[in-house]
């Protein structure tokens, strides 16, 4: 085996359910706790001092650069400091890059870490307080990519700029493409999400450790309010969690030098990245993902495995639509578990850092079943940025393999979007947004007779209700130059 073969040797997951307004724990506190716990997990007393790269996944926290603070708190001697842009794909993309850096001999031991405290922030808000953050100074030594806007002006002009608006639009497009009724579709995705809760119920590091029935998931109630059609709260990512995680990566050679037993080693076999068009408006349709298809299948090809040979998968699960698109593009068997954590609703959704928890869980399960192979999928933006990784506790037959397949994705068909349009169109997809009193807005994404995409809003409250009761995809509308739509 190549002595520089990258290997994961320490992992941790931190869940803090308690809340004390007089002793608030910041995200950086959870990161530090997670880093120390990952070191303990590695079974090496020397690994902390050997860290020469600290890599932090970007969160919604307001730290300028927390990696330097962590390095100082851990007593490290001027390690490399690395950050990421926003995006749920960042953890897997960072692990792949770290594997490449170790394989190239550029670093020896990397700490990959992240945390969010959405539960604490929500409880502070109820008390009329806000989170305070330590000052962290200095720039990162390097960044894993750049921040790229993922909303275009046509979308923003109609007030569509949030995941809770975009993902239900993908969901309704999926339903229409499948030819399902609203009732049958609701039943199917509620059953899918109940399966995720069943996994969470058996996962000691899940935030919600109970199985929830399809009936409870699909039924709106005081505790399961509608957010956006067709999603009630229990079909949304749960960001009200205080969760942190850390990974320690090194080479086989360094792992042996640090005295880390091989029982703790898990190998990243392959990785692949790609992104769909940054603006949803430019995609050929709203129910598929060329980037998932090209990058996901490339990661499997590089690892030399097929979907049928996978023993476990964790599909990124911010909303049911994200899971269904991945299942369709990769040919996954949705009669088998699609998560190892419970997903972002039940396992917990610490925003960009969820995949660190899924990789940590993959490491734990791989150690228990060394011959088995697992796949991690990661998604950032509006089903936009994608990263994939294949893992096993069995050593790979070749060096870690990686590919960025953006050229193949860029060759796929796209659409033109119009910001201003006056004329007939056909509804491609839609959603209805809810407030405390019920429906409050109706958003449409439509296609003109020439196949261009336009966004429009429905202003009639009676139509909002009707849109949730009968299929609106495929209906004819007239759109005026103000962006208002009228059904015809």
Keywords:
alpha/beta, 18 strands, 488 residues, 6-stranded mixed β-sheet, single chain, 5-stranded mixed β-sheet
Walk me through the structure:
By secondary structure, the chain is an alpha/beta fold. The protein contains 16 helices and 18 strands. The chain has a six-stranded mixed β-sheet with strand order 1-8-4-2-3-5, with helices on both faces. The chain has a five-stranded mixed β-sheet with strand order 10-11-12-9-13, with helices on both faces. It has a five-stranded antiparallel β-sheet with strand order 16-15-14-17-18. Helix 7 crosses helix 12 (320-330) and helix 11 crosses helix 12. The termini are far apart.
Overall body shape: globular
Whole-number mean pLDDT: 97
- Which spans have pLDDT < 50 for at least 5 consecutive residues? none
Cα-atom radius of gyration:
23 Å
Q: Strands of the biggest beta sheet: in what spatial order?
A: 1-8-4-2-3-5
Number of strands: 18
Report the helical percentage: 25-40%
What's the main sheet like?
A: 6 strands, mixed
Oligomer: single chain
Number of helices: 16
């Amino acid at each position: 085996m190549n002595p520089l073969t990258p290997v994961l040797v320490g992992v941790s997951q931190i869940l803090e359910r308690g809340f004390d307004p007089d002793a608030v724990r910041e995200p950086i506190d959870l990161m530090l706790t997670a880093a120390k716990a990952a070191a303990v997990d590695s079974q090496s007393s020397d690994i902390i001092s050997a860290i020469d790269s600290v890599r932090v996944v970007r969160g919604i926290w307001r730290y300028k650069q927390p990696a330097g603070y962590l390095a100082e708190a851990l007593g490290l001697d001027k390690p490399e400091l690395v950050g990421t842009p926003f995006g749920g794909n960042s953890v897997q993309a960072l692990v792949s890059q770290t594997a490449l850096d170790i394989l190239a001999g550029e670093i020896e031991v990397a700490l990959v870490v992240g945390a969010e405290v959405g539960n604490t922030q929500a409880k502070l808000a109820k008390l009329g307080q806000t989170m305070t953050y330590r000052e962290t100074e200095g720039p990162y030594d390097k960044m894993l990519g750049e921040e790229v806007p993922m909303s275009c002006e046509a979308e923003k002009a109609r007030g569509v700029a949030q995941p809770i608006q975009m993902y239900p639009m993908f969901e309704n497009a999926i339903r229409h493409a499948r030819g399902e009724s609203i009732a049958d579709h609701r039943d199917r995705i509620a059953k899918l999400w109940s399966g995720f809760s069943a996994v969470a119920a058996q996962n000691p590091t899940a935030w919600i450790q109970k199985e929830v029935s399809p009936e409870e998931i699909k039924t709106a109630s005081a505790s399961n309010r509608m957010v956006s059609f067709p999603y009630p709260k229990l079909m949304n990512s749960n960001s009200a969690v205080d969760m942190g995680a850390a990974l320690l990566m090194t080479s086989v050679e360094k792992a042996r030098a640090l005295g880390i037993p091989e029982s703790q080693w898990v190998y990243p076999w392959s990785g692949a990245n790609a992104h769909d068009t940054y603006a949803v408006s430019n995609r050929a349709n709203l129910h598929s993902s060329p980037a998932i298809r090209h990058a996901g299948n490339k990661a499997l090809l590089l690892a030399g495995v097929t979907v049928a040979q996978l023993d476990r998968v964790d599909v990124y699960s911010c909303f049911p639509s994200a899971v269904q698109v991945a299942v369709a593009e990769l040919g996954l068997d949705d009669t088998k578990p699609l998560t190892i954590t419970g997903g972002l609703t039940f396992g917990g959704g610490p925003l960009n850092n969820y995949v660190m928890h899924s990789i940590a869980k993959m490491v734990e399960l791989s150690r228990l079943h060394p011959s088995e192979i697992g796949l991690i999928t990661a998604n950032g933006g509006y089903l936009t940025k994608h990263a994939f990784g294949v893992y096993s506790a069995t050593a790979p037959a070749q060096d870690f393999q990686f590919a960025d397949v953006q050229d193949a994705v860029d060759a796929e068909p796209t659409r033109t979007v119009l910001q201003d349009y006056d004329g007939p169109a056909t509804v491609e997809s839609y959603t209805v947004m809810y407030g405390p009193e019920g429906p409050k807005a109706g958003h449409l994404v439509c296609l003109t007779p020439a196949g261009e995409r336009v966004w429009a809003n429905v202003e009639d409250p009676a139509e909002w209700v009707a849109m949730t009761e009968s299929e609106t995809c495929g209906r004819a509308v007239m759109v005026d130059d103000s962006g208002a739509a009228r059904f015809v």
